[in-house]
Structures are given as structure tokens and as C-alpha cells.
Amino acid sequence: MTEAVQTSSQFTRRVFSGIQPSGGLTLGNYLGAMKRFVDMQGQDYETIYCMVDLHAITVWQDPEKLRHATRELCAGFIAAGIDPEQSILFNQSRVPEHAQLAWIFNCVARMGWMQRMTQWKDKAGKNQQNASLGLFAYPALMAADILIYHATHVPVGEDQKQHLELTRDIAIKFNHDFKVDFFPETEPVIEGAATRVMSLRDGSKKMSKSDPSDASRINMTDDADTIAKKIRKAKTDPEALPSEADGLEGRPEARNLVNIYAALAEMEVEAVLAEVGGRQFSEFKPMLSELAVEKLAPISGEMARLMQDTAEIDRILDRGAERARTIAAPILKRTYEIVGMVGA
Ligand code: ATP
Ligand code: MG
Q1: Ligand 1 pocket residues where CB is under 6 Å
Q2: Fewest CB atoms less than 10 Å from the CB: which of 99, 148, 184, 244?
Q3: Separation of 272 CA from ligand 1 center, angstroms?
Q4: Average of per-residue pLDDT across 311-325
Q5: Going by CA atoms, what residue is nearest to atom 5 of ligand 1?
Q6: pLDDT given at position 193
Q7: Is 235 one of the catalytic residues?
Q8: Model confidence at 285, in pLDDT bands (50, 70, 90)?
Q9: In terms of Cα–Cα distance, which of 15, 30, 26 is closest to 263?
Q10: Confidence category of residue 12, pLDDT binned at 50, 70, 90
């Protein structure tokens, strides 16, 4: 049994996840992460969701845009169905225990572990020498984000699987090095038809909010015409859609659009193909656009409404940070004691 730190929670299972305010929310973030966050709220979990602004600045962010993106992301969480009373909703920099635990984990994680991270390799690209030290250390901060709450479950998209494995490695090494059973081995929750939504322009690349091409993604704030246009222009192949999932083999763009449809409609991929098999993309794409607009328009409308009162958003974030700190502070204190910090 992992050592429990006394907090006032009545839950034994705790969910943590975060999204970077590194741009506007995409359909990938919504289907792979946020929609899942909403699903886990109100189940038998305590749910903690975070705008990870300290992660966002691992690549340069314009300060005004960062402030806007953080508030808009908060509006996105609420518009998608996160209740800031039921869940704890805050921005990472307001809870300094994340960065404090990250320093301890910087001293636990090994250079070799970090060098293997595919996100580091993808984001640093060919010019690693010029990437920030923060970008390299990103996964240790992510481990701290999760473990500062002793979170047991972390819903994420497929691209974060490797970072969650590293989080477990850090927890295991810490426990081993200090001969304690303190940090839990967190379970990744990577489920659904859209755990990896691909770029609309390149079926081999993940859809990302930081992609320089706006046409590569659907933003949660895109209007109906923009969504229709981006889907119409999405890369596809000349074949008709197959009637069974096997027929998507070797057709990444077709698979992507079908997965998006299935996730939005909350249907199995097989059931979607049973309906649309044999149709051309010229017929399927308008169906997909209509469904996307139907599902996204209410969320973007609500986001715009909430953004008219940023003072209220800031109050929600204040309150969320306060609640988060009541869990994080005793866990950091105990960590410092374990490590041998005088006065902890
Ligand atoms: P950035 O390009 O700045 O890294 P991002 O779009 O990758 O932005 P993140 O904030 O890094 O978004 O990730 C937030 C969550 O969204 C994570 O759980 C991540 O796994 C998930 N996610 C990101 N992109 C996708 C995608 N294309 N499909 C499914 N899930 C995704
Ligand atoms: Mg990302």
C-alpha cells in the first residue's frame, strides 16, 4: 500500500490531467482529452484539471497571448462540461508545489530517460542545442503535476503514453532510492476512437494546436464555414470508404476521418463503416462537417459567452488553485522530509 498523506478528500481514486495554453483548443484536444475529462467527472473519482502554463513556456509564448489562451482554455473546460465546483480547475503556475516537486524529480530522472522521449525529439527537431532546457525537462514537470496529487488515473491522448511511463519510472526510482512506498504508480487512461487525431493535411502527423498550419486542425473556435472548408480540403485518397475496419489498413487519412466521425457520434468504428461503407469522400465529408458543427458549435458559443467575463474566469482559477494547494502542500512537505530537507 502506498503511504497516504492526509487530505480532506473522500475519494480514493484521483484523476489529474492538463492541457497547455500554447494556442487554441483543437478537435484533437477535445476528443483525445477534454471529452474524456468530462466523462470521468462525477464517477467515483476526485477530478483535478489544469491549464499547464509552465509547460506552454517551454517554447516561446507572447505574454498577452498566453494570458488570453489560459483564460480561453478555462472557458473551454467549462463549456465542454467541467463543473468548477465538482472538479478542481486551475492554472499550474498558481500552485508552486508543481515546480518545487519538479526540481526533486529533475534530480531523480536520468539524462538517458529524457533523451529517449519522442516529444522532445519531435519538438526540438534538428536543432536540439537551441531548444530550451525546460523543453528537455518537460516530462519531469509533468510527472510532478501528476504525483503532487498522488493521482491514480491520468486521461490523455496517445502521444502522452511515453511521458506517463516515465512518470511511473520516476515514482518507482524515488520510492526505491529513499526506501519508501510514497508515490503511486499512475494508470494512464487512453481510450476511445480518437486517442490520436491526425493532421488534416498529413495523415502521419498528430493534429496539434502549435502546428504552424491552421488548415491542419479544427479549432474549437472555428465557425461552421471554416470547419466545412477545412474538412472539404482534408487530404484523402481516391478510393470509396470500406465497409469494415480492415479496409482502413494503409489508409491513414481515411482512418482519421472515420475515427473522428466515430468519436463525435459516440459510435464504434465498425458501426460507422456499416453505415457509410461504399460512399465516396465527396459524400462522407459533408456528413462529417455537419456532425462536427453540431457537436462543436454549442461549445464554442458557450466559450465566447464565458470569455465576456474574464474577471469571473479569474475568480474560478483563484478558487481552484486554493483547493489544489490544500492537496499539494502536504504531499510536498512529506516529500521534503523524505529527501532530508531541514525544517520541512
Ligand atoms: P502542442 O502542440 O502545444 O503540444 P497539443 O495540441 O499537443 O499542443 P497538449 O496541450 O500538448 O496539446 O495536450 C493536451 C492533451 O491533448 C493531452 O492529453 C494530449 O495527449 C491530447 N492531445 C493532443 N493532441 C491530440 C490529438 N491529436 N489527438 C488526441 N489527443 C491529443
Ligand atoms: Mg502536445
Answers
A1: 19-20, 22, 26, 28-29, 32-33, 156-157, 159-160, 194-197, 206-210
A2: 244
A3: 25
A4: 98
A5: 208
A6: 84
A7: no
A8: very high
A9: 30
A10: confident
